[in-house]
Amino acid sequence: MSDKSATLNLGEKSITLPVRSGTIGPDVVDIGKLYGQTGAFTYDPGFTSTASCESKITYIDGDAGVLLHRGYPIDQLAEQGTFLETCYLLLYGELPTLAQFSDFQSRVYRHTMVHEQMLKFFTGYRRDAHPMAVMVGTVGALAAFYHDSLDIADPHQRMVASIRMISKMPTIAAMAYKYSIGQPFVYPDNSLNYTSNFLKMCFSIPCEEYKVNPVLSKALDHIFILHADHEQNASTSTVRLAGSSGANPFACIAAGIACLWGPAHGGANEAALQMLQEIGTVDRIPEYIARAKDKNDPFRLMGFGHRVYKNYDPRAKIMQKTCHEVLGTLGIKDDPLLDVAVELERIALHDDYFIEKKLYPNIDFYSGITLKAMGFPTSMFTVLFALARTVGWIAQWKEMIEDPHQKIGRPRQLYTGAPMRDYVPLDKRG
Ligand code: ACO
């Protein structure tokens, strides 16, 4: 609690509201007792000024373009660490020692397979189902198989469920992909690291030898780190809200996946690549910039803008570098999509409309081109995002469950419907 306070005058009443300070970042006015003291609610659709919880996991300064996990800058984690190390950091609060990492890694690898009966779930979907639809269903279905990790009151079961989801998500994501292209499922290979194992499950076939390209594996590991957590975004808030009722962790993560699917959130990487393909050539960019600025046209430049970042998204800078590395490794010198992306970014960063509205490229702008070059179809982009974000969702869910002040999330509303009126029988209604 800080020594600051806020005074609110509402009609005849004047009340003092406590102000709380975090380690860094803006103070918050604690309005928890506002309704009791004044009979009024606050109104903030879209939560633009509302902190929904207290958290120690991730910090973002959107104006400065800073993203920290447990205090560590995202560029240091991405450039010097691995995704599994970031998973440990998000879950446990500290970077692991060698012994802790080796123990964590073996616990994650132990759970990479899914129950054999789950294969039937996949084959029950239409072949042309969007893999995100398959993800929502199959991740929710995990609750039907792993009954020994559903008791959220037991810390051991919470951790087992957490590890299970981090371990199984690549297997489930790869199965969703294999099913969509009519190829046999590939079982996990625990002799490979987390990300290489995922690449193998996606791209190997039983009749040929498959060697993981280490540069691509490292690049995908970077992409996973960049997507691992992003404080109280829409899907994470969904997971917390679902979890606040005591729902099991698998159901909560399925809810997060459903929310992530939307084009304003995780679906943006797919939408960004589709937009680049639609633009096609550099000479058509001015037409699309004009459409993005036209108030009467719903078109938006996908991969631009962010609710929190009003500066360059720090993840987008790393993503841009990774994109060039992947294209270089694969020998893709003249990718028309990359030409369009680079020129679009250049024009937008110099255009008054985008400057005034502080619209910078976000992480999704370059991730689509990179994933496409690696061989992933656009329909898998959001699935990869879900795979990486699972650890963030889990860490946030655990933090919420372990918070002694945790309550069911239950927002209030400003009611603007009909006031009370009497029922009129059907035969009396004109
Ligand atoms: N292209 C053109 N104009 C835009 C764009 C864009 N991509 N984004 C915002 N604007 C304009 C809006 O029209 C609005 O203009 P106005 O003030 O004249 O009405 C202004 O900028 C503010 O936009 P809001 O929608 O109010 O901002 P909000 O914070 O609610 O939205 C969002 C953020 C949803 C990300 C938005 O910028 C957007 O739709 N971007 C494209 C989709 C996208 O890339 N999403 C990925 C987000 S990152 C992630 O999930 C990993």
Overview of this protein structure:
The protein is mainly α and 430 residues long. It has helices spanning 34-38, 74-80, 83-92, 98-110, 119-123, 131-141, 155-181, 194-203, 214-227, 234-244, 249-260, 268-279, 285-293, 314-329, 336-350, 352-356, 364-374, 381-401, and strands at 5-10, 13-20, 28-29, 58-61, 66-69, 72-73. It is globular. The mean pLDDT is 94. The structure holds acetyl coenzyme *A. Residues 264-266, 268, 292, 300-307, 357, 359, 362-364 line the site of acetyl coenzyme *A.
Q: Average pLDDT across residues?
A: 94
Bound molecules: acetyl coenzyme *A
Our Rg estimate from Cα atoms comes to 24 Å
Q: Could you tell me the strand content as a percent range?
A: 5-15%
Portion in helices: 40-55%
Tell me how many strands there are: 6
The helix-strand sequence is EEEHEEEHHHHHHHHHHHHHHHHH
Which key phrases capture this entry?
430 residues, mainly alpha, 3-stranded antiparallel sheet, binds acetyl coenzyme *A
Task: Tell me the layout of helices and strands.
Elements: E1 5-10, E2 13-20, E3 28-29, H1 34-38, E4 58-61, E5 66-69, E6 72-73, H2 74-80, H3 83-92, H4 98-110, H5 119-123, H6 131-141, H7 155-181, H8 194-203, H9 214-227, H10 234-244, H11 249-260, H12 268-279, H13 285-293, H14 314-329, H15 336-350, H16 352-356, H17 364-374, H18 381-401
Antiparallel strand pairs: 1-2, 2-3, 4-5, 5-6
Helix pairs in contact: 2-9, 3-18, 4-7, 6-7, 6-11, 7-8, 7-18, 9-14, 9-18, 10-11, 10-18, 11-18, 12-17, 14-17
Bound molecules: acetyl coenzyme *A (ACO).
